[in-house]
Amino acid sequence: MTQQVLESSEPLIAKRSGEHDRFDTLTPRERDVFEKLITGASNKEVGRQLGISPRTIEIHRARILKKLGVKNVADLVRMAMRLGFER
């Protein structure tokens, strides 16, 4: 049974490694935006918190989604949870 558990966890480990590699490609500002977005903050709220315009947040958000290979913020939150971020 232990062997089955190990075999079934291997793809998960490989997936996490790829997600970590993609996360490492984010710029420091993109990481700031990422951390705010996964809490459920709107573009406007994130912009206020970081002192930049909502349009700039939209640009960062689009780049984050593309770099991480996710389609929307819900997928981003799921990825953040797998990476160990807490909401």
Counted by DSSP, the helix tally is 5
Low-confidence stretches: none
**How many domain modules?**
1
The CATH class name reads Mainly Alpha
* Helix and strand element order: HHHHH
Q: What is the arithmetic mean of pLDDT?
A: 86
The computed structural class is mainly alpha
CATH-derived architecture = Orthogonal Bundle
Major beta-sheet overview: none
Q: Please, what is the CATH homologous superfamily?
A: Winged helix-like DNA-binding domain superfamily/Winged helix DNA-binding domain
Residues in β-strands, percent: under 5%
- Write the CATH fold name: Arc Repressor Mutant, subunit A
| Helicity range | over 70%
Q: Supply Rg.
A: 15 Å
Write down how many β-strands occur, each being a DSSP E stretch of 2 or more residues. 0
Distance, first to last CA: 34 Å
| C-alpha geometry | globular
